[in-house]
Design goal:
The strands form two sheets. The chain has a five-stranded parallel sheet with strand order 2-3-1-4-5, with helices on both faces. Strands 8-7-6-9 form a four-stranded parallel sheet, covered by helices on one side. It has helices spanning 14-25, 32-40, 50-66, 80-97, 114-123, 130-143, 188-198, 214-226, 260-264; strands at 2-7, 28-31, 71-74, 104-109, 155-158, 165-169, 204-208, 233-234, 251-253. By secondary structure, it is an alpha/beta fold. The protein contains nine helices and nine strands. α2 packs across α3, α3 (50-66) packs across α4 and α5 (114-123) runs antiparallel to α6 (130-143).
């Protein structure tokens, strides 16, 4: 059994990595933000409903630990005592169900970058006024404590999503052969590289950069899932947005790409 604990300020990319780990490790994601949204119908914290949130979270943890499922815990968890409480509860439940179970405990520490957290929340405030986020992030920053091995972790990884290598990859005639509006044959040479890179989930981020929309886009997304082709977003970069329609990436992979040098020589070839 493996436990992946994600910690750090809001807006730094924990949920993005949680999904990547869950897909790669067949894990269950337990996310307080998702629980709040489920209970309230939107992301809106309600103090009087906290016992409900906590009961749902505890039940999910207990159910997953009892059957030895890998767990991704997606929370801020900026305080040492909170992290220790969760690790203790998961360990006790899992060992009560199976005394000889081996549990590996990983911590992914997203740090305390308040500037990045505030910038991303300004772009996606999730229905909250910015003063609410400013206060919450400031309060968490003052409580932030680095994760340490003595808490019970086997591995601690420092994550900075600003340094993800972001790949914007075309779909038609790139991931698959050209057969639009239908879907062509998988380009195994390319997709196998994507799968290998996806084995390093906190280093690589895949964006499907396509002109497809509506039903044709839905068909492409179903195809990607059915073929286990990794991707994190489609036609957007949630980790870095300037408000422009252009998707930001470090590398663009497209059958119609032309290098700067080739373009400089276009006139000479006329």
């Amino acid at each position: 059994m493996e436990v992946y604990m994600l910690m750090g300020l809001p807006g730094l990319g924990k949920s993005t990595l949680a999904k990547k780990i869950a897909c790669a490790e067949n894990a269950v994601i337990i996310c307080m933000d998702d629980i709040i949204t489920m209970v309230e119908g939107r992301y809106q914290w309600n103090d009087s409903h906290y016992p409900i949130y906590k009961k749902v979270e505890d039940t999910l943890i207990q159910s997953a630990a009892e059957i030895g499922r890998n767990i991704v815990l997606d929370r801020t968890l900026v305080r040492e005592r909170d992290r220790c409480d969760f690790l203790r509860a998961i360990t006790m439940t899992a060992t009560d169900a199976k005394s000889d179970i081996e549990i590996k405990k990983y911590c992914f520490d997203f740090g305390c970058d308040t500037a990045t957290a505030l910038r991303r929340k300004a772009l996606n405030p999730r229905g909250q006024e910015m003063p609410v986020w400013e206060k919450a992030i400031a309060d968490m920053a003052t409580q932030y404590e680095n994760a340490e091995k003595h808490e019970g972790f086997d591995f601690i990884v420092t994550v900075d999503t600003r340094y993800y290598r972001t790949w914007a990859i075309d779909f038609d005639n790139t991931i698959v052969s050209q057969n639009y509006p239908d879907i062509g044959k998988e380009n195994m040479a390319l997709t196998n590289v994507m799968r290998k890179l996806a084995g390093y989930p906190y280093q690589n981020y895949f964006i499907i950069n396509t002109c497809r929309s509506g039903l044709r886009l839905a068909e492409a997304e179903c195809y990607l899932r059915s073929r286990n082709i990794p991707y994190d977003a489609i036609n957007e970069n949630p980790l870095f947005s300037t408000g422009s329609r252009k998707v930001y990436a470090d590398v663009y992979v497209d059958d119609r790409n032309m290098s700067i040098k080739d373009f400089e020589n276009v006139w000479e070839k006329k």
